[in-house]
Amino acid sequence: MKFRKINSDYVIKMEKGDDLVKEIAKLCKSENIKGGYFTGIGALSNVKLGWFNPVEKVYQTKDFDQYFEITSLVGNVGRLPNGDPLVHNHVTLSDSNFSVTAGHLFEGKVSLAVEIFLRDLGEELEKAQDPELHLNFLKL
């Protein structure tokens, strides 16, 4: 991963083999980004997506071992009470048949390149666990 900071924005280029979610978390930790949001495009493979079942209160996950183009990547970054960054993102992916697959992105390996624009909001956005759903949401 390579990046350049422009004012409060980060222009990020991930390269083949990078783990998208882990790299964003790593950047936020090293650059002390405590709250922000991002968008991106590119290509992934070895993807793990999730859909949250609100009745069972668990993520249903599915692994995809194929190549995809990212048609939309959106997410935010906050901090857990222990100070660790928490990346929450959703992705829409297109396959070779021009079919779309989407969901919460748990894992994805960059297969060609990924380009992301990340905005550092300059202050901490704390995420705390919701007692009912057991998910970490922004604490405002």
Radius of gyration, whole Å? 15 Å
Number of DSSP helical runs: 1
Biggest sheet layout: 7 strands, antiparallel
Counted up, domains total 1
CATH superfamily: Hypothetical protein, similar to alpha- acetolactate decarboxylase, domain 2
Taking pLDDT < 50 over at least 5 consecutive residues as the criterion, the unreliable ranges are none
- Fraction of residues in helix: under 10%
Question: How many beta-strand runs?
Answer: 9
Order of helices and strands: EEHEEEEEEE
Structural class: mainly beta
Termini, distance in Å?
A: 32 Å
Mean pLDDT: 97
**What share of residues are in beta strands?**
over 45%
**CATH topology value:** 60s Ribosomal Protein L30, Chain: A
**What characteristic shape results from the CA principal axes?**
flat
CATH classification class:
Alpha Beta
CATH architecture title: 2-Layer Sandwich
Organism: Candidatus Clostridium helianthi
Pfam families: PCC
Protein name: PPC domain-containing DNA-binding protein
Keywords: DNA-binding
Structural commentary:
One of its GO terms (molecular function) is DNA binding. This is PPC domain-containing DNA-binding protein. InterPro entries: DNA_bp_PD1 (IPR025707), PPC_dom (IPR005175). Strands 1, 2, 3, 4, 5, 6 and 7 form a seven-stranded antiparallel β-sheet that branches. The protein has a two-stranded antiparallel ribbon with strand order 8-9. The radius of gyration is 15 Å and the shape is flat. It starts with a strand and ends with a strand. 26% of the residues are buried. It has one domain: 60s Ribosomal Protein L30, Chain: A. It has one helix at 20-30; strands spanning 2-6, 9-15, 36-53, 58-64, 68-79, 85-94, 100-120, 127-129, 136-138. The longest helix has 11 residues, at 20-30. The model has no long low-confidence stretch (mean pLDDT 97). The chain contains one helix and nine strands; from the N terminus they run ββαβββββββ.
